[in-house]
């Protein structure tokens, strides 16, 4: 079992990958799907139980409609074509983010994939779709406010644990490591609450070019780090 219980990835660079090759941007997303497949298979081999992928942000609606349609079409095809294999490989698929703005076909296809794979225990792939961390936090606070209004709790009970449960009812642990590709060095409204003590790793490769060897480099870098969570390492505390 890997020391990483939850790996999150900001899959950046699909459009740039295509543009560099004189191809339409949707081609980059198509190649990005292949990278998702490679990463999922590698995560299984390395014993990483939870993988969260930032697929479509709440800000991505600003992109050209043609690109958005192509991206959702690719997602639909992937979920349909891979469903049986995901079940065989004991992989669970679920989604986080808003669902009220998704095209009906995507919503239904996603729900069907979630239902078909819900017993998967080898790897849980969470797709962040129409996702924004600020909206997620606001929704959690609104839910807490409703609990208070209905006298299900008192203000003094509101703490980190309560909010964390609202953000992740399934008690998914915070990501140990967040990888971002394409050389950018920001979280872009991704898992802001959950990333409080996550280790960050920035890879210069564009997402379609991300290979298992790149994952191995990120994991090796992670293993060299000392995670203190705000405390003092034991050896240092004893010596001084």
Give an overview of the whole structure.
By secondary structure, this protein is α/β, with parallel strands linked by helices. The chain has a single domain (6-132, 171-229), classed as Undecaprenyl pyrophosphate synthetase (3-Layer(aba) Sandwich). 45% of the residues lie in helices and 15% in strands. It has a 6-stranded parallel sheet, with helices on both faces. Helix 4 links the parallel strand 3 (91-96) and strand 4 (123-131). Helix 3 (65-88) packs parallel to helix 4. Residues 236-240 have low confidence and may be disordered.
CATH topology: Undecaprenyl pyrophosphate synthetase
Task: Give the N-to-C terminal Cα separation.
Answer: 34 Å
Spatially, the strands of the biggest sheet line up as 3-4-2-1-5-6
Portion in helices:
40-55%
The number of helical elements comes to: 8
Low-confidence stretches: 236-240
Major sheet attributes: 6 strands, parallel
Averaged pLDDT, please?
A: 92
Quickly give the CATH architecture: 3-Layer(aba) Sandwich
Q: Which CATH top level class fits?
A: Alpha Beta
The geometry reads as globular
Question: H/E order of the elements?
Answer: EHHEHEHEHHEEHH
Strand content: 15-25%
């Amino acid at each position: 079992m890997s020391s990483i219980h939850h790996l999150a990835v900001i899959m950046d660079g699909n459009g740039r990958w295509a543009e560099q090759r004189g191809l339409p941007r949707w081609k980059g997303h198509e190649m990005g799907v292949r990278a998702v497949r490679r990463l999922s298979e590698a995560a299984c081999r390395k014993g990483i139980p939870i993988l969260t992928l930032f697929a479509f942000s709440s800000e991505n609606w600003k992109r050209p409609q043609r690109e958005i349609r192509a991206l959702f079409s690719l997602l639909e095809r992937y979920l349909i074509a891979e469903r049986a294999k995901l079940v065989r490989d004991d992989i669970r698929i679920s989604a986080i983010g808003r669902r009220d703005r998704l095209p009906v076909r995507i919503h239904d296809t996603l729900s069907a994939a979630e239902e078909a794979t819900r017993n998967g225990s080898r790897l849980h792939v969470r797709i962040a779709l129409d996702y924004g961390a600020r909206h997620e936090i606001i929704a959690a606070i609104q839910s807490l406010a409703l609990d208070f209004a209905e006298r299900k709790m008192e203000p003094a009970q509101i703490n980190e644990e309560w909010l964390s449960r609202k953000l992740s009812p399934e008690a998914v642990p915070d990501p140990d490591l967040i990888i971002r590709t394409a050389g950018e060095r920001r979280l872009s409204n991704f898992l802001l609450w959950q990333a409080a003590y996550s280790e960050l790793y920035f890879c210069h490769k564009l997402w379609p070019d991300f290979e298992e060897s790149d994952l191995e480099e990120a994991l090796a870098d992670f293993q060299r780090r000392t995670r203190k969570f705000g405390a003092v390492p034991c050896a240092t505390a004893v010596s001084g």
